[in-house]
UniProtKB/TrEMBL annotation:
InterPro entries: CB, DNA_brk_join_enz, Integrase-like_cat_sf, Integrase_catalytic, Integrase_recombinase_N, Tyrosine_recombinase_XerCD
Predominant localisation class: cytoplasm
Official protein name in the record: Recombinase XerC
Signal peptide bounds: none
Domain Core-binding (CB): 4-108
Keywords, in A-Z order: Cell cycle, Cell division, Chromosome partition, Cytoplasm, DNA integration, DNA recombination, DNA-binding
Organism, as annotated: Lysinibacillus contaminans
Pfam families recorded: Phage_integrase (PF00589)
Cellular compartment(s): Cytoplasm
Every Tyr recombinase domain range: 130-310
Length: 318
């Protein structure tokens, strides 16, 4: 999708997302993408343009008068296009619904530029709750033992310990600075720039000391010094960390399907829950804004619970 000039109202909305709502720049980019796609589609439909050339449509001319003419039917037509023509999954379409709802709510409630909000009745596609994919203790042990000894192994081991013990997100890990650590406590900046304090257990402390004493590469950038530095002396990216996880997965012989940093987060959360962590504590550790998100981990032991019930002494067939 080519970069085109955005209408002022969309620019204003994107600024509102980050400065007032505290959304991350990644989320802002996703909202910008969704709105650009929607308005290009809308103009294509209005002017009977070919969909193959939709990426060339300039939306900078969109006016508030034109936005006032948008109806609920226009929104559903766009959602149908996303499902049928773009093969968007239910979760991808749900994000686009969230974008449209947020945008129209802003221009009606905050800016009072429209009288009727066409997205009020726009329904979100139902998303089947996925069972979290995770490693068991034996698999996690094999994974960790698969880290090959080299100059980067103390750093990689420390990162994997942070994933598996603290359940942090890959973006949170990449954004950690040396100043994030105060004694045995780690300040993590999560979604929406919300800070949370996480305790560092002995495994994390030991791995951190080994990494600090390993003669790691000096930071060559400006600003706060990252906790984890690449071999080029730069802050690690999400993509680089994902490649490291993929490499360890292969070298360990585990070859776990689709193992990503997010799956390590799931593994950590699962193990903490199985070890007796209550949902509220787990919610804080993981940085979930809603306990409903954390509750997916209450379903992980369905088979184990079934086995317990089967073994109940009162399970007597007469």
């Amino acid at each position: 999708m080519q970069k085109k000039q955005l209408p002022k109202i969309i620019k204003d909305f994107l600024v509102y997302l980050t400065t007032i709502k505290g959304k991350s720049h990644r989320t802002r980019k996703e909202y910008e993408y969704d709105l650009t796609l929607f308005f290009r589609f809308h103009l294509a439909m209005q002017n009977d343009l070919e969909m193959e050339h939709m990426s060339e449509i300039d939306i900078s001319t969109i006016t508030i008068e034109a936005i006032r003419e948008i109806t609920l039917e226009d929104l559903y037509l766009f959602m149908e296009y996303c499902e049928v023509q773009r093969n968007n999954s239910a979760s991808a379409r749900a994000r686009k619904v969230a974008t449209l709802k947020s945008f129209f709510k802003y221009i009606k409630g905050k800016r009072r530029l429209i009288e009727e909000n066409p997205a009020d009745e726009l329904e979100t596609p139902k998303i089947g709750r996925k069972k979290p994919i995770y490693m068991n203790l034996e698999e996690a042990t094999q994974f960790i033992e698969g880290i090959q000894p080299n100059s980067a192994s103390p750093r990689n081991y420390c990162m994997m310990m942070f994933f598996l013990n603290l359940g942090i997100r890959v973006t949170e890990l990449c954004n950690l600075n040396k100043s994030s650590i105060q004694g045995r406590y780690l300040t993590v900046v999560g979604k929406g720039d919300k800070e949370r304090i996480v305790y560092l257990n002995d495994s994390c402390i030991q791995a951190l000391k080994a990494y600090e004493n390993s003669g790691k590469h000096a930071y060559t950038g400006i600003g706060d010094e990252p906790l984890f530095v690449s071999q080029k002396g730069t802050r690690l990216t999400r993509q680089t960390v994902a490649k490291i996880v993929k490499q360890i997965n292969k070298q360990s012989g585990l070859q776990k399907d689709h193992l990503t940093p997010h799956k390590l987060r799931h593994t950590s959360a699962t193990m903490m829950y199985k070890a007796g962590a209550d949902i509220r504590s787990l919610q804080h550790i993981l940085g979930h804004s809603s306990v409903a998100t954390t509750q997916i981990y209450t379903h992980i032991e369905d088979e184990e619970l079934q086995h317990v019930i089967e073994k109940n002494p009162f399970n007597i067939v007469r």
